[in-house]
What does this fold into?
Amino acid sequence: MNTHPTPVLISRYATGDDGVDDATIWAIEAHLESCAACRNTLTETVDPAARQLLDRVAAGIAAGIAAGPEPARRRRLRRTGATAQILPWLATAVALILAAVSFESTFRSMPSLVLLVAPMAPLLPVAAVWSRHTDPAWELVSTMPRTRLALLLRRTLAVLTAVVPMLAAAGGLTGHSPVLWLLPCLAFTAGALALGGLVGVDRAALGLSATWSVGVIAPSLVGQRLPVILEAGSWPGWAAATAGLVVVVLLRATHYGRRGIGRN
Ligand SMILES: [Zn+2]
It folds into this structure.
């Protein structure tokens, strides 16, 4: 927002009006960080009685801090948080990939299990980093509309950074073209995020995994042939799907605020 938000809008923002959507809130917050004039307007829109109350609270806290005990010494943060919560799910993905490699090297006449599991390999860890049940910072994250999409993309990227090298090793060992495992993997990840705007990223990722397992992996193993969508010429379709889904994720950015993080 290059122009100043109107005083009416700032006042609706200050009072937490439900009619102000997430995209507008992001824009106002970004503008307030760089515009002193609008910060003054914001201060003026706060009711004088509430301002006096805030001043009293601030003075009380300052007095309490001055009179209180020495602050506790800074402890090293334990590695709890999303990183620790996601490790079991990353281990599951790694186990899945290893199992696929050993299955494929043992049963050479069967369709490639590495190609079949590649699309869903990142989905379990992605579901885990976006479940409110496994994310101790969920309450905090859900109050920060501006950071949600950035955080969503950063966490997803972290999952891919862990899963893609494993798939690369698996693809290299079994001799598959990288486009045949990488593009479906990226398309499904983007699909989980795109669907996540509607139903929550964790549900979308689990739903896609289940659908792919039942609809594609099981029939391929039973019929003993790789589906057409995973054959050599299929990659332009996956590339187009990935690009389209990424565009959907970016266009629907505001929806992640309300429904994208876990089940809220
Ligand atoms: Zn301004």
Summary: DSSP finds 13 helices and no strands in the chain.
